[in-house]
Amino acid sequence: MIMTDFTPQLLADVNESFWFPKSASTFSDQVDETYMLVMWICVFFMVPITIALFYFSIRFMKKKGQPAESQVSHNTPLEIAWSVLPSFLLVWIFVEGAIGYIDQQAAPEGAASVGVKSFKWGWTMDYGNGVFHPELHIVNDKPTKLTMRSSDVIHSLFIPAFRAKRDIVPGRYNEMWFNPKVFSEKVSDAELEAAKLDAKENHNGTFDTGRYQFTEDGYRFFDLYCTEYCGRNHSQMQTVVVVHETQADLDAWIKKYSGRTDQTPAEYGKLLYERRGCSSCHSVDGSKRVGPSFLDAFGTDRKFASGTSAVADENYIRESIIDPKALVVEGYQPVMPSYKGQLSDDDIDSIVAYLKSLSSGK
Ligand code: HEC
Ligand SMILES: [Cu+2]
Predict the structure, then answer these.
(1) Binding site membership of 320 for ligand 1 (Cβ less than 6 Å)
(2) Residue 45 clears pLDDT 50, i.e. is over it
(3) Which of 15, 16, 111, 315 could join 143 in a cystine, given CB atoms 3.0 to 4.6 angstroms apart?
C-alpha cells in the first residue's frame, strides 16, 4: 500500500480544480497524477505532430495533375528511435497505473466495513445490528471496505471525490476500499432548521440533500453515484457520503438510527420506508414511480397482472413485502426485491401502520 502522509482537512477547505472534483481520499492524488502524466504526454506529442502535419501538407503540395513521387526509401535509425523511445513512455504509464490499481485491489487489515446493497434504483447501506440507511457514513483517516451486492442488474458504485469506483455484479460479493482524508463538517443549527422548514413548507416535507448541500442530520457530503447504466431511473441512483471526523461521532450517528425508540409504529414505519429504499420506488403523494403510490391505497381493491384481485389489507401488504412476485399489481413490472429475512415482524407491522396512516377514512 502507498502510505500517504496527510493532515485531515475540512470539506469546505478543499477546492475543486478546473479538471477534477474535490480530492478527498488517499487515492485521489495518485489517480490525478497518473491522469495528468498521460495527458501531458499526449499534449507533448500532439502539438508538434499537428503543426508538422499542416506545415508539410502546404510545403510539399503538388500542382494538380503532377504525379506523386515514390516513397520507398526509409531511414532505419530514425524508425527504430521513434518506435523504441516512446515505448519507454508506455512502460512508465503502465507502471504508474499498475501501482494505483494494485493499491486499490486489497483493503488493508483492520479496515472498517460497511455492507452495500444496490437495486434499481437506490442504495441501502448496512451498518450491522439491523441498522440500515441510504447514506454512506464513514470515519476520516480510517480505511473502509465496502462489501457490495446487487439485487437485480449490474450497478457500479462511484465516489468521484475519492477517485474510487467498482462494478457490482449480481450473484456475488464485490469489494472496494478507500481511505478518506477530508471530513464533513456540520452546518449550523440555524441553517439546518431553515432547510427543514423550507422542505416542510415548500417541498412536501421532502428533504432534498442536493438542494441544501447538506444532509438531514446537517452534515456536508460527497456525492455517490451509480455509474453503470441500469435502466430508466439510473440517473437518480445517487446518494451521499458523509465522512465523520471521529469514530465517536459516527457511532453516535449510527446509534441514532438503531432500532425503535419511543416512536409510534406509524412513525417508525415511516423511517423504515425512507431508510430501506421503499421511497425510491413508491411515493406517498399519489404519483406513480416504479411501483404504485401508497396514498389512499390501504383497504382498496388491487388488480393483479394475473387477472385476479384482492383487498389491500394487512396480510396483503405483508405478503407484498416478503414475496413481491406472488401478486404483481396490474400495470407494473415485477421488479420489487423481496425483503424476506431483512425486516423483522415488528418492522413490517410498523410499515403496515404507516401505510394505513396514509389512507384517509380507513
Ligand atoms: C425496486 C423498486 C421497489 C422497491 C425498492 C420497493 N418496491 Fe414495493 N413494489 C414495487 C413494484 C414495481 C410494485 C408493483 C408490482 C408488484 O406488485 O410486485 C410494488 C408493490 C408493492 C406493494 C403492493 C402495492 C399495491 O398497490 O398493491 C406493497 C405493499 C409494497 N410494494 C411495499 C413496499 C415496501 C414496504 C417497500 C420497502 C420495504 C418496497 N415496497 C420497496 C417496487 C418496489
Ligand atoms: Cu445502477
Answers:
(1) yes
(2) yes
(3) 111
